[in-house]
Design brief:
Length: 193
């Protein structure tokens, strides 16, 4: 469906509108920050709240990103793209057993791993006993670490969506650590709850 008002706009005007929208979002973020600092300065109760609840606890960037996108849209002005889920929500495995703080899942050779739930990538690197790992802080405030990953284009601070291709398993073992409120929980418990 085309809008008649957009048909009259030239590409430069559309691009200018996107840039102005982005600048407005930046100015709103700065204004919100300044207001927060002013209120903190004059309200000891609010300052205590900010120190204890915001600065003193682990912030869920996935949750904040979800709220920001809901009310303000995407951070950068991009064209709307349709998101298509490629994989099933559940991982397919033949065996699951406890391993370190998480679990070890036996999967088919070179299994393609889907993201369990949308969130922000907060760590990409190597860890002894787990190989290459990718940690995603999900929108539901759960942190999931996927281990033994290869062939991935995921980078630190990428936003990944549910079902997106995370990477390929090196061999036939996927290490999975699911952390909720600083407690490790099992994959099957997480999926069922």
């Amino acid at each position: 469906m085309k809008y008649k008002c957009l048909e009259k706009l030239k590409p430069k005007e559309i691009k200018k509108g996107k840039v102005l929208k982005f600048i407005n979002k930046c100015l709103m973020a700065i204004l919100l920050g300044i207001i927060t600092l002013i209120v903190m300065e004059y309200s000891p109760k609010f300052k205590t709240f900010m120190n204890e609840e915001v600065l003193g606890k682990n912030i869920s960037f996935g949750f904040i990103g979800k709220i920001y996108n809901k009310y303000f849209g995407e951070v950068l002005p991009t064209d709307n793209k349709k998101v298509v889920t490629v994989f099933n929500e559940k991982l397919e495995y033949t065996n699951i057993e406890k391993y370190l703080d998480g679990e070890k899942l036996t999967v088919s050779d070179n299994y393609l791993v889907p993201v369990i739930n949308s969130g922000i990538v907060v760590f990409v690197g190597e860890k002894e006993g787990l190989g290459k790992i990718i940690t995603v802080e999900q929108e539901d405030k759960v942190t999931v670490t996927y281990g033994n990953i290869k062939n991935t284009d995921i980078k630190l601070y990428d936003y990944v969506t549910r079902g997106k291709f995370l990477g390929e398993i090196d061999g036939n073992t996927l290490y999975l650590l699911i952390n909720k409120d600083n407690n490790y929980i099992g994959y099957e418990t997480y999926i069922s709850g």
